[in-house]
């Protein structure tokens, strides 16, 4: 199992809508994540900075392939069209990233 986390900004005027859509994530999106070996997925919000932190555990053995399957999924693409305009990617993110990857510096088992 690999713990993974990312961070992104959110436009303050979209916070309530973002919370609303995430209170009822489309079942097909959830199924795709599960099929791609993503478990224990959470998103946290930090205000007033308007930052969102995501955390999940990857239980597969080929994250690049599983991540590509998520990205190729038509329902997930539609979900991203809903959520993406609300988000504000960090300027410091790596090339090709939307959410910026984070380095794990501590873990207590």
**What string gives the helices and strands in order?**
EHHEEHHEE
Fraction of residues in H or I helices: 25-40%
* Uncertain runs: none
Residue fraction in strands: 25-35%
The quaternary state of the protein chains shown equals single chain
Structural class: alpha+beta
Q: What is the annotated CATH architecture?
A: 2-Layer Sandwich
Report mean pLDDT, rounded to a whole number: 97
User: How would you sum up the global shape?
Assistant: globular
Instruction: Tally the structural domains.
Output: 1
Largest sheet: 5 strands, antiparallel
Topology:
Layout: E1 2-10, H1 15-22, H2 27-35, E2 38-46, E3 51-58, H3 63-72, H4 74-83, E4 87-88, E5 100-101
Antiparallel strand pairs: 1-3, 1-4, 1-5, 2-3
Structure description:
With 109 residues, the protein is of the alpha+beta class. The chain has one domain (2-101): Alpha-Beta Plaits, CATH 3.30.70. Helices cover 34% and strands 28% of the residues. The chain has four helices and five strands. The protein has helices spanning 15-22, 27-35, 63-72, 74-83; strands at residues 2-10, 38-46, 51-58, 87-88, 100-101. Strands 1, 2, 3, 4 and 5 form a five-stranded antiparallel sheet that branches. It is globular. The relative contact order is 0.26. The mean pLDDT is 97.
Quick overview of this protein structure:
By secondary structure, the chain is α+β, with helices and mostly antiparallel strands.
Structural key phrases:
alpha+beta, Alpha-Beta Plaits, globular, 109 residues
């Amino acid at each position: 199992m690999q713990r993974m986390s990312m961070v992104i900004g959110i436009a303050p005027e979209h916070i309530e809508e973002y919370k609303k859509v995430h209170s009822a994530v489309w079942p097909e999106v959830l199924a795709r994540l599960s099929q791609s070996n993503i478990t224990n997925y959470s998103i946290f919000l930090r205000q007033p900075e308007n930052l969102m932190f995501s955390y999940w555990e990857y239980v597969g053995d080929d994250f690049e392939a599983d991540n590509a399957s998520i990205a190729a999924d038509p329902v997930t693409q539609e979900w991203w069209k809903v959520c993406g305009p609300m988000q504000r990617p960090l300027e410091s993110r790596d090339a090709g990233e939307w959410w910026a990857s984070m380095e794990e510096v501590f873990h207590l088992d």
